[in-house]
């Protein structure tokens, strides 16, 4: 278990995958989620979008954060053909996203915010994912499982669909699931040791 030296670490994310990563890193934490609108100005690109949303997710905590609290926010987007693909709103949108990812490479960008009483630091990580050809039937069967609906880009690399259809990845694997674990662990240790 990581010695947090009296720091209270709060994960401001309802994602079961992010919570599982924190358990695996053996970091004691509590979960507190304050829902925010995840919108962004149209002029933003890629990592700028993820960082903007992380700032939005951190904002509600600024007024109430205490000394020795570290609030961690995160946002993952899929960036493909100069477009941000968030979580699909419905099955039709999930199918459209998956069709666009077929036979091509896209970027998965996760930004992570580390909010302390006097500062907000944001890091981000970019991974590149290449899908093979996706047939209509494969897409149809996958969206029937409902799994794509809570995932940016409409897929989970850890799902059977991802295992069967992703040909290559460049960069952090855990980042594609929703948290660049090694980079986050390093940053948390850095913050704790500075205080």
The proportion of residues forming helix, as a percent range, comes to: 25-40%
Measured distance between first and last alpha carbons: 19 Å
Shape: elongated
The assigned structural class equals alpha/beta
Gyration radius, rounded: 17 Å
Task: Write up what this structure looks like.
The chain has 195 residues and is an alpha/beta fold. It is built from seven helices and seven strands, in the order E-H-E-H-E-E-H-E-E-H-H-E-H-H.
Please describe the structure with a list of short key phrases separated by commas or semicolons:
195 residues; alpha/beta
Sequence-ordered SSE layout with sheet pairings:
Elements: E1 8-11, H1 16-24, E2 30-31, H2 46-62, E3 69-80, E4 83-85, H3 91-101, E5 105-116, E6 119-131, H4 136-144, H5 160-165, E7 166-170, H6 173-177, H7 181-194
Parallel strand pairs: 1-2, 1-3
Antiparallel strand pairs: 3-4, 3-5, 5-6, 6-7
Helix pairs in contact: 3-4
């Amino acid at each position: 278990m990581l010695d947090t030296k009296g720091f209270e670490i709060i994960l401001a994310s309802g994602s079961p995958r992010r919570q599982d990563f924190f358990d695996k890193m053996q970091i004691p934490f509590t979960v507190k989620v304050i829902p925010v609108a995840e919108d962004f100005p149209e002029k933003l690109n890629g990592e700028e979008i993820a960082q903007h949303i992380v700032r939005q997710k951190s904002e509600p905590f600024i007024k109430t954060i205490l000394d020795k609290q570290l609030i961690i926010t995160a946002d993952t987007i899929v960036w493909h053909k100069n477009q941000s693909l968030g979580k699909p709103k419905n099955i039709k949108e999930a199918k459209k996203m998956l069709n666009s990812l077929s036979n091509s490479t896209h970027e998965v960008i996760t930004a992570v915010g580390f909010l302390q009483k006097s500062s907000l630091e944001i890091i981000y990580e970019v991974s590149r994912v290449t899908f093979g050809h996706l047939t209509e039937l494969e897409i149809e069967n996958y969206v029937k499982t409902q799994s794509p609906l809570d995932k940016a880009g409409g897929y989970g690399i850890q799902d059977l669909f991802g295992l069967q259809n992703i040909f290559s990845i460049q960069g952090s694997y855990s980042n594609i699931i929703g948290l660049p674990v090694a980079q986050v662990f390093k940053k948390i240790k850095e913050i704790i040791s500075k205080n």
